[in-house]
Structure formats: C-alpha cells, structure tokens
Amino acid sequence: MKSHQERIIRIGTRDSELALWQANTVKQQLENLGHKTVIVPIKSRGDIVLDKPLYQLGITGIFTRALDLSMLNKDIDIAVHSSKDVPTIFPKGIVQAAVIKRGNVNDTLVFKNNEEFLSAKHAVIATGSLRRKAQWLNRYPTHTIVDIRGNVISRMQKLQDNEDWNATIFAAAGIGRIGVRPEDAINLDWMIPAPAQGAIMVTAPADDEEVLAICREINHEETEICVGIEREFLNKLEGGCTAPIGALAYIKNEEVNFKGVLLSGDGSKRIDVTRVKKLGEHHDIAQYCADFVIERGGKRLMDSIRGVAKRTNVYSTKSLTETQRLLFKDKVHVESADFIKFSLNRIPARLLKNQIENVIITSKNAVESLITNYSATELQFKNIYCVGRRTKRLVEQKIGKVAHVENSAKKLADYLVEFMEGTEVTYFCSDLRLDDLPNILEENHIKVNEIEAYQTKFDGIKVIDSVESVMFFSPSAVNSFLQINNTDVIAFCLGESTANEAKKHFKDVRVAKMPSVESVIELVNEHYV
User: Which residue is catalytic, options 47, 68, 77, 85?
Assistant: First the structure.
C-alpha cells in the first residue's frame, strides 16, 4: 500500500452506466493503492445524437472528444474510455497512461425468442456497428441489418419493443460488466472483434508526470501489448474506429497471436490476415499484417468505404492538431497543410549589445528566433510590445514581461503612437511583412529599426475541386494559396490583417471574432449548419 496522497485525481468519464462502471473500476484500483480520487461525469456527443448510426456521424473519437477537451481545459486529470472508442492518434498534449486488464473480447448475440432464425433465409439483426454489420452479412448474406443506437439498456429495450427484430449484437464485456447479459446469449467467436475491444484505457495530459507515474501502477502489460498491436493495425489501414475492421491479438505460450480482417460495407468482400511471432519479436506484426491486407486490395476497399460523401470541402492553410480537427461539425470534411514555411535567421550580437528600450514582436516565429540565438538573460529589453495573446504567452515564458498586447499590428501601432515612451522601436520581423505597423509609426516620427529574425517561404499546394472554403491565418498564407489556386472559395480569416489581404482577391471573406484557430473553426461551423 502506498502512502497517503494529498492530490485528488479527478477521473473524467461519460455518464452512461457502462462508462461509470469502468470509471469506478479505475477509481477502485487507484484507491487500493492509496490515491484519492473523484469521478467527474461528462456527456459526449455520441451519447446525445441517437438518431444516426455511428458511422454516419463522420467523427472519429465521437465518444472521447468531450473528455479530451475537458482534460485540455484542466477540468479533469485523467479520462477513462472503452479502448475501442479511442482514435488511434491522440490529440496533442494527451497520451495513453494505462490499459486495464482486459475482459471478454467477444461480440455477443442477444436474441428475443430463440435462435432458430440463424438457419432461416430472412432475419433482422440490429447493430450500429459497420464492422458487425459487414461480418454478419458476410456470414448471413440474406439477412437484414437495421441500425440501432443508445446505451446498453436502451438497446436491450429497443430489441424487445421491435416485433420484427430477431437479435442485436453487444460487446460481451459491456453487458457482462453491468450485469445484464441474458443467460442464453451467444458469444460470436467467429466474429473478429473491434481493435481493443474489452479493454479499458486511461488517458492523461502528456506533461503531468505525477499522474502518469500513478497510472503506470495500474497498467496491465500483456493487455497493453495486445491492444497496442490491434490499434496500430487499425491506424496503418487508416481506418477510424467505425470502419469495418476487426483485430485481435493474444499471448499464449510466450507467443503473440494476431488475426485481422477488413471487409466491404455490405460484407461481400473480405480480406483476412493472421500472424504468430515470439513475444519480444512481435513489434512488426501490425505493420506486416496491414501491408498484407493493403497489397490484396485493402486500399481500394477503404476508398470505397469512405465514399464520395467524404470529399474535402474545407482546406486549412495551417496544419491542424487532432484536438482542433475534433471541433468541426459533421458536415465539415477538412484537410490541412502548412502553406508557409519559416526559417530562423542568425541575429548578430552587435544588434543586441546594449539594452533596447522598446521592442515589437508580432509572431511566435520571431520569439523562436530570439531564443534560438540567445538566452533570456542576454535579451535586455525594457519594454516588449506584442501582437496576439499566444505570442504574448510565449514571450513571457521565454524572454520577459510584456508591456502591452493588441490583436492586430495596426492597433498596436496606434497604441504606441499615443502611449509609448521614447521615439525609437526595434521590430523583430520577417522578410515578408505588412507595411501597416512601420508606416504608421514612421508617419508619427517614431524611428523603426527592423531586424529580420526569420524568413517566410511560400509552400502552398493545389487543392482539389470539391474545396468550397479555405481557412487563412496570415496574409502570407493568402498569397501562398493564390500562387497555384483560384479565388472561387469562401475565405475564413483569423484577424483583420489577414482579412484585409484576402479582400483584395476573394469575393466572400469572413473574419473570426477572436484571434484564435478555434474561433476560425467556429466560423466554419456556423457556415456549415
């Protein structure tokens, strides 16, 4: 037993009965080791939208998004998930902290009257899982699949309420854990489960070393290995957690056994793979098996599953994090790439040999250049003026206190004209920069010493025809896009400076209310209601 812990670990969970069971399991294991905990229930979009099958919602991580955002907002310390619901790529700043010892991995058939329908030509099976649907139709091609959503209890009730339905399919672990498995339910050992089915995953902030160390105490290594292989197989096939992909790894006699499957949505096409490797030599299993499936037509199958409906309609000229991607509504199919690249310049020491009274920094790239060249103690700045809250935060973390911040270069220039002490500023800028700030200052007899801290290079790509709108985060990105693309799109812009540049070229320009990526995403969502 560990010594008493002062910190109370806040455990985030969905508020369904099964999710709360899982969270309480983690809570009990942690408290058995002497840690204090409290459960924080949070409702997910997957729990709220019950009128569509999961695969039509178009969101990977639909059951994890709310918990991810709560963790990034520091409202919870850890989150407990069904491992099969967790996207294979974690949002930036969140990591897998533990996997609990696995339960029953099987899918289970729950039927209403008897199992005679299994030998009948016509039967109706309810499932919201594309994987279960595809495998069932592969085995029983004349049966009918109907969609069903909701938690375990509500799905059980729907089966009873619908006269035409013969059965529905559950994860054995789920119905077993909350004690509602009927005695005559049948484990479908022929159906390959979802990757990581039956396992509980704990996620935590990547930078919280204390919590990560605590979570390692409840990690089950054998389950971690098996679940890791299954999730990597899913990732290598580029499948979301709703794709018709099955995977199961288990360890027996010091060997790792793996079987995987990819099917077409209607079950008519199927590609299977198996692999056995000695424990310790198992690290290439997922890659080998994914390559095996892809080489036998897997890529064409995946492309057909994604379908035309998923064609990109929004393009971001800045690479988006997984957390940011999760903020988009269902109708938004977004791709992203960095349309501008930066290279940091060498800043000569002679330019900084004396304390500089007034300094202007308008981007994080300038901060990176300064701290790459010099330590904070070498950067003797009396007054630092910034554009953007994020730039301000980085300056104060790496260099020193900021005297004043504004949302745009023009607003900062206006402020300096009225309130700045002295008649000279040093501006750490790019080789490509807008003229607003230096022009306003010089018109008001303030000398501007420009130091080229970094270079900006256009690195745009040609976007596909289905793109209807583009997200811009800087005037440079607008110009980079225009080099090889036309202007027949809506321009969603961060900040007035970017919007003013866009207005020179695009008919429809929208400006975010706040100078943040999230605010631009909100603007996009408002358009695609």
Answer: 85
Residue 59 reports pLDDT greater than 80: no
- Does residue 243 contact residue 131 with C-beta atoms inside 8 Å? yes
Reading the block at residue 179, the tokens are: 């004690």
Mean per-residue pLDDT for 333-341?
88
Amino acid code (one letter) for 58: G
- Tell me 88's DSSP state: S
Query: Chain-wide mean pLDDT for the chain?
Result: 88
Residues 122 and 152 in one domain: yes
81 is in which domain, residue-wise?
1-102+197-219
Q: Is 338 helix (H, G, I), strand (E, B) or coil?
A: coil
CATH of the domain at 246: 3.30.160.40
Ramachandran area for residue 280 (φ above 0: left; ψ -120 to 50: alpha; else beta): left
Q: Which residue matches tokens 């509500």?
A: 154
Q: Count of domains in the chain? A: 5
pLDDT at 60: 45
Sheet holding 255-263, edge to edge: 245-252, 255-263, 270-278
Q: What is the pTM of this model?
A: 0.57
Supply the pLDDT for residue 380. Answer: 84
List the CATH number of the domain containing 151: 3.40.190.10
User: Is 85 annotated as catalytic?
Assistant: yes
Q: Please report, for the domain that includes residue 450, its CATH number.
A: 3.40.50.10090
Buried/exposed 214-231: b ≥16 CB within 10 Å, e otherwise: bbeebebeebbbbbbbbb
